[in-house]
Amino acid sequence: MKTPPSGRARFVVRHRLFFAAAAVLVLLRIPSLFEPHWYLDEGMYATIGAHIRDGHVLYRDIYDHKPQLIFYLYALLSLTGNTLVAAKVLNILAGIVTLGGIYALSRRRFLFGRRATAVALVAATILLGTPVLEGNIANAENFFLPLTVWGLYLGLTRSSRGLLLAGLLFGIAFHIKLHPLFDLGALAVYLLITADSNKERIRQTGLLALGFVAPAVAFILFELSRGTFDLYIAAAYLDAYAYSGESAESYIQQTLTKIVVLLTGLTAAVTVWRKTHNRTVTFILILLMFEVFAAVLSGRVFYHYLLQLVPGVSLGAAWVYRNLFRDRSPADKVTAAAVAAGLMFVFAAYFNSSYALPYQNPNRRLPDSWFAAEYYNNFARHLPSGFADDSYLLFFSDRPLKLRSIRNVLPEDTSSVYIYSDLGWAYDYVDQHSPTRIFVAFQLYYRNDDRDRLATMDELYQDPPQYLMIDETRDTFDQLDTFLAENYRQSGRENEFVLYTYTARATARAR
């Protein structure tokens, strides 16, 4: 007699679509484990995480314009001794959890069949697993997606426990990056539209809000206890528009236009609900409206912003498949075709924007928007010989070679150094702390006034570092040039990086 399969084996067989997708995701992400220190966001998270690990206070001693959790996550990862590899491994695990949420939504919440669920998983696996949307990068989007996807799953139960847990997950995700607020908004609007009574509307949205607020209260109390509440609010929330490079007036005007478009789309979703009472299409339309709004809110084009669309696009792809290729009415097929065309338009517009197209790495044959097409070929070509060759590193960027130059020119006995460059990895790479709160050059140009520059110069005047390193490809500013001329002499150079040694006591003030 054959031994009957164990409960675990039956579970794997029953959910084989998910496990197959997870296996493919892991295979697609393996090359990411061998990427060099090249991506700016990863470097900034790692540098800030190392500072937090060593006792520096976030927002007071070291700065970036995001909520806390992504930095504390990298602080934990830095304890492994190899922050980059640890972040990539955790990114793979986060992708698997996200796939699990999309699978659960497809099968248990929307009752898609196996083929439609397979379409959802194929779409999610490609978007999360490949560099098409920078899924290979251990960025904030990849880490909040598991929380938002499972938040949607729990919220759709409409049970008190599910709604509270959903709100809690969204609240935690919000403190990784602000954008999960819009997935929460999509869920809340859907619940409001489809609830059976006003009492249910109040109960459901109230429980969501209660769960969402809980982490916020905890973080506010934490920042108040450290005396950094005002810095936290300014950095995590108020400085966001400055990163767009737009004036406040222009940013507000563009945002209002996007809000009008969002409201128009939501009106269409409400109309669909009133005419069809189709919960699936209503939810997917609302979710996509909010996710597209969140992705384009900043006005800038970075492909990882589109990762937030993975839940809506995956579920939308499953729904489109079910309506286009199954026995559905002509009206359903037209609606499905319209949704598919809309999604294709969003992606085509994003990938062919005037902002993105000019960027092309000279060591690649194709523009950056086609990075994924060469990514796996580059990995396969260098697999036999290893991944330390300059040709492998330069495929990604010249930043790994710049980091090497910094390490080569910096003396081993360095006690302190200020590195004026756009390399987010610089301080972590050479195991140094930034002597200034703002540690990358481009952030000194966020504002239209000199506040950040003057504050940075005050820090340098108060405690001049032993060395100062300048990236000559980056424009400096008058106050830094004066400080350098009065207190430092050139003592080394490698490529575009010039090293200066402190020679005088800086008693003047930046102002």
In round numbers, the mean pLDDT is 87
The biggest beta sheet is recorded as:
4 strands, mixed
Alpha plus pi helix count: 21
Q: What distance lies between the first and last C-alpha atoms, to the nearest angstrom?
A: 88 Å
- What's the arrangement of strands in the largest beta sheet? 1-2-4-3
Reading the helices and strands in chain order gives HHHHHHHHHHHHHHHHHHEHHEHEE
Alpha carbon gyration radius: 25 Å
Beta-strand content bin: under 5%
> What is the helix content?
55-70%
Number of strands: 4
- Which class do the helix and strand fractions yield? mainly alpha
Identify low-pLDDT runs. 354-358
Protein name: Glycosyltransferase RgtA/B/C/D-like domain-containing protein
Organism: candidate division WS6 bacterium OLB20
Subcellular location: Cell membrane
Membrane topology: Multi-pass membrane protein
Task: Describe the structure in your own words.
GO terms for molecular function: pentosyltransferase activity. The chain is mainly alpha-helical and 511 residues long. The protein has two domains: 12-351, no CATH class; 399-502. It is built from 21 helices and four strands. It has helices at residues 7-14, 16-29, 40-53, 69-78, 83-109, 114-129, 140-155, 160-174, 180-194, 198-226, 229-238, 248-276, 279-296, 310-325, 330-351, 371-382, 390-396, 399-409, 426-429, 451-462, 478-487; strands spanning 417-420, 467-471, 488-494, 497-502. Strand 3 and strand 4 (497-502) form a beta hairpin. It starts with 6 loop residues before the first helix and ends in a 9-residue tail after the last strand.
